[in-house]
Amino acid sequence: MAHISVSALRDNLTALSARAGVPLLLPVKADAYGHGLELVARVAAQHPDVWGLAVALPREAAQLAALNPGKPILLLTPPMPDEVGPLADLGVRLPVSSLAEADALPPHARAHLKIDTGMNRLGARPAEAVVIGQRLAERGLLEGAYTHFASADEPDLTFAYTQLERFRGVLTQLPPVLAHASNGGGILSLGQLPGMRLARPGLASYGFAPPHLRRVVPLLPVMSLRARITHIHTAYPGESVSYGGLWHAQQETVVATVGMGYADGYPRNATLKASVQVAGVRRPTLGRICMDQMMVDVTGLDVQVGDWADLWGPDTITVTDVAEWGGTIEYEVLTGLGARVERVMAQ
Ligand SMILES: *Cc1c(COP(=O)(O)O)cnc(C)c1O
Domain check: are 205 and 86 in the same one? Predict the structure, then answer.
């Protein structure tokens, strides 16, 4: 079960908006980084520092529009031609990075010009972007313009500043628009950027920052993940636990089986590295992480079937720890949280 702390999310949004000096366009793609689109959209809808919400896919945009958040929704990746009309009808702001896309927009659409300043993933090159932006402005469709930093979350900001300069070069040749560039890394490392009107912190809103930026703004992990002990038994010396017999008991070991596994998004690669917290104590997992369960050494602890094991949270093991054990990053762990894990709002 995942507990989503409304107060942590609210406080993170307030702090990030203050640091950026502008309202937020909150990324809620991938089920709000695994936190639950509906829960997060509800909090964002009532937060004074959130201007709007950003999603990656047309399907996500339609789901979000159906929740009626009462705030603008921006689609971040290009829709297919047949998706443009329906999305515009829903009021979804659309990314545009070619003249053909600009010309194909219906007259009631609202566009955010997407400019490729060095990420080399999406967007129009700066020179081309000026022409596209002017065309959109002539048609009265240009609401915003944005770019995306490739390495604003790294200590060396040289390239981020280069990208910013290219972006500003385009903006000076357009009428005033809602310009936005910074992701969470950009907000934390670059702070207020003159000319920018919005910022898009994803992972930071959910409470995580790279090590060198952790002290810039106090962020609280929004999600706590827990699962129940479903079975307790003893493994005797020489016996193995779980698939493949990777772990053997050296002495009598009390084993608790916990109802969470890789189908819930807990990384299987964390096998033989992961710990969980049981009865307030950090204890190692034993043998392979399974699809639906993992086994934990609870020898000497006063635990019973039905007790909860904490897999991550603000006051225990962190998502960062789990990502490290799994050889991955917080983004992948959070967005990989299984659909079958219940998300509940907590204060
Ligand atoms: C996902 C995304 C973000 C958020 O990035 P974080 O690193 O999570 O802050 C911002 N902008 C765009 C275009 C994105 O795709």
Answer: yes
Sorting pLDDT into bands at 50, 70 and 90, what band is 247?
Answer: very high
Q: Residue 275: beta bridge partners?
A: 284
Q: Ligand 1 mean position to 132 CA, how many Å?
A: 23
Which of ligand 1's atoms lies nearest the C-alpha of 203?
8
Whether the predicted pLDDT of 330 surpasses 90: yes
Residue type for position 219: L
**Quick one: how far is CA 298 from the chain centroid?**
33
> Are 281 and 302 members of one domain?
yes
User: 202: Cβ below 6 Å to ligand 1?
Assistant: yes
Whether residues 206 and 77 fall in one domain: yes
Q: 326: domain range?
A: 223-346
Would you say the CB of residue 183 lies under 6 angstroms from ligand 1? yes
pLDDT at 293 over 90: yes
Residue nearest to atom 10 of ligand 1 (CA): 183
201 lines ligand 1 (CB under 6 A): yes
Q: Do 207 and 254 belong together in one domain?
A: no
Distance 266 CA to ligand 1 centre (A): 23
Among 145, 137, 135, 75, which residue's Cα sits nearest to residue 100? Answer: 135
Tokens representing residue 159 in the block? 């390239």
Answer yes or no: do 154 and 262 share one domain: no
Rounded to the nearest angstrom, the distance between the alpha carbon of 28 and the centre of ligand 1 is 9
Place of tokens 């916990």: 258
Handedness of CA 136, 185, 347, 55 (dihedral sign): positive
Residue 185 Cβ < 6 Å to ligand 1 = yes
Whole-prediction pTM: 0.97
Pairing of strands 178-183, 50-55: unpaired
Mean pLDDT of 62-89: 98
**Residue 218 forms part of a structural domain:** no
> Do 93 and 238 sit in the same domain of this protein?
no
What CATH number is given to the structural domain containing 254? Answer: 2.40.37.10
Identify whether residues 62 and 133 lie together within a single domain: yes
Beta strand 94-96 with 111-114: parallel, antiparallel or unpaired? Answer: parallel
Task: Specify whether 19 is located in the same domain as 113.
Answer: yes
The pLDDT score that the predictor gives to residue 347 is 81
State the pLDDT at residue 229: 98
Q: Which residues are catalytic?
A: 29, 243
